[in-house]
User: Which sequence fits this backbone?
């Protein structure tokens, strides 16, 4: 998980409402320089959309997001995803993820949640909801007692604050929906999404 996150400082969080949008959206993000794509399992279109991306956009590194059940962990593997991300972590999820064939990124927003996931061997976390849970100052505070722990903050991140997060030594990457914006997807504005992706890549580099 760490290798995947470290080489890809911005991960677009994608919510698909129509299967037909999956491939052109993934192609736009890849063209803009973003190849790690998190597709949330929040909509009916998500599963078939992921299948289409895996099949038709082989250069994409696709993972599932909003993974909340053990069935969704199994589904992520079956779909050919390369990683899976949860906004939180339960004992059931952590136990099942331990024997999964692809890496799992649990979500935490407090010290005790983080320590509980560390008991299962995790060293990389989604910090969610990043801005609402205290943002940059919290991650700076985590760096003291948890020096070897890394984060992918997500939630409330956009162009206005992405660099504040990426400047932190314990932040490997950030996630967010500001690139694959629902409005632009609805309008099928693939050029606009590609532009936002390129802008994020340029900022992050
Ligand atoms: C999510 O799971 O919704 C992500 O954290 C995205 O959050 P954002 O929409 O605030 O970027």
Assistant:
């Amino acid at each position: 998980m760490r290798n995947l996150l470290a080489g890809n400082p911005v991960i677009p969080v994608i919510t698909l409402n129509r299967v037909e949008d999956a491939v052109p959206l993934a192609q736009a993000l890849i063209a803009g320089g973003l190849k790690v794509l998190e597709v949330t399992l929040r909509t009916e279109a998500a599963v078939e959309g992921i299948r289409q991306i895996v099949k038709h956009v082989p250069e994409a590194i696709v993972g599932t997001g909003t993974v909340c059940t053990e069935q969704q962990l199994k589904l992520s593997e079956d779909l050919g995803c390369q990683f899976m991300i949860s906004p939180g972590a339960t004992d059931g999820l952590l136990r099942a993820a331990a024997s999964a064939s692809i890496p799992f990124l649990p979500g935490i927003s407090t010290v005790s949640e983080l320590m509980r996931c560390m008991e299962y061997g995790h060293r990389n976390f989604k910090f969610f909801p990043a801005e609402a849970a205290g943002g940059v100052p919290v991650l700076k505070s985590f760096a003291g007692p948890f020096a070897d722990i890394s984060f992918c903050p997500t939630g409330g991140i956009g162009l206005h604050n992405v660099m504040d997060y990426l400047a932190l030594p314990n932040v490997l990457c950030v996630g967010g929906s500001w690139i694959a914006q629902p409005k632009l997807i609805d309008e099928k504005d693939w050029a606009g999404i590609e532009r936002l992706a390129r802008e994020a890549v340029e900022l992050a580099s």
Notes: The longest helix spans residues 190-204. The radius of gyration is 16 Å. Residues 13, 65, 87, 128, 154-157, 175-178 surround 3-phosphoglyceric acid (CB under 6 Å).
